[in-house]
Structure formats: structure tokens, C-alpha cells
Write a structure and sequence with these properties.
155 residues, mainly alpha, 2 domains
Length: 155
């Protein structure tokens, strides 16, 4: 175990700074390769995790918008409609930013939608009590999910 590897265990922040310095100086032989690989792998997983989380929240709100909105009283619908709409807008903006900054995530978008939809339907069911109302598979296309102007028709 070299000094940099020991530093990883003791002070991650300092390990990161020293690793960056070594990379900039092209002193590759001194790098802690095993931990560097682990951290790079974790970074990729973290971005994918954020994609799935954002999709889960967005899809849950699209489902509630489509299937619960008409069942709300007029006063409650006004409040919930604004709240859901704001969340939909916010999640789409965050997804656009994430995909713009990490274009490689676009290749994982379709699988991430499938992965997040079950979670989204479960979340929407818990929040609305309408579990039987939601389709088993995502009813929205990738284009609809990302389209800032798309809101599903009310059922």
C-alpha cells in the first residue's frame, strides 16, 4: 500500500487534491489506481442514481396529475395543481441540466424510465391512495416526459 492509498483511508479530501495534482503533472506511476477506479465508477453510478431519482419524482407527479386531479375538490385542486405543476417544471429543468452536463446519460434514459416507473407508481399510490388506477407500464414516451409543455390528459 503506497502513501496515497493510506491517505485515501485517512483524509479523502486531501487524497482527492493530491490525485488531481499528480494527474495534472502526469505523474501516473504515483497514482492510487485502485481507489481512483473505484471513485470514477462511483461517480458514474451517482449520476445514474440522480437520473432515476429525478424521473421517479417527475413520473409520480405526472401520474397524480393525470389520475387524481379530477377527484380533488375545486379548492384543493387549485392548490395541488399548482404544487404538482411546479414540481413537474422543476424536475424537468433538473433533468435537462443533468442530461446537458452528462450527455452520456442519454443512453441510459430509456432503461432509467423503466427502472423508475415502478417506484413512481408506488410513490403516487402511497400519496394518492389510487394504486389500482395506474398503468403497469409507463404510459408516457421519453419525448413526453422531457417535453416542458406536455401534461397528460386528465382521466
Amino acid at each position: 500500500m503506497n502513501n496515497l492509498s493510506l491517505l485515501y483511508e485517512k483524509d479523502f479530501s486531501d487524497w482527492t487534491a493530491r490525485t488531481v495534482d499528480l494527474l495534472r503533472q502526469r505523474r501516473f506511476a504515483e497514482l492510487d489506481i485502485d481507489h481512483l477506479i473505484e471513485e470514477l465508477d462511483d461517480m458514474g453510478k451517482s449520476q445514474r442514481h440522480e437520473l432515476v431519482n429525478r424521473l421517479r419524482v417527475l413520473l409520480a407527479h405526472l401520474l397524480k396529475w393525470q389520475f387524481q386531479y379530477r377527484q380533488l375538490s375545486e379548492r384543493w385542486a387549485e392548490f395541488e395543481g399548482k404544487s404538482w405543476r411546479n414540481t413537474i417544471i422543476e424536475q424537468r429543468a433538473a433533468l435537462r441540466y443533468l442530461l446537458d452536463k452528462n450527455p452520456g446519460l442519454r443512453a441510459a434514459l430509456a432503461d432509467s424510465i423503466v427502472e423508475s416507473y415502478g417506484q413512481a407508481a408506488d410513490l403516487a399510490a402511497q400519496e394518492s391512495g389510487l394504486s389500482a388506477a395506474f398503468p403497469l407500464e409507463c404510459p408516457y414516451s421519453q419525448g413526453q416526459i422531457l417535453d416542458r409543455d406536455y401534461y397528460p390528459p386528465l382521466e
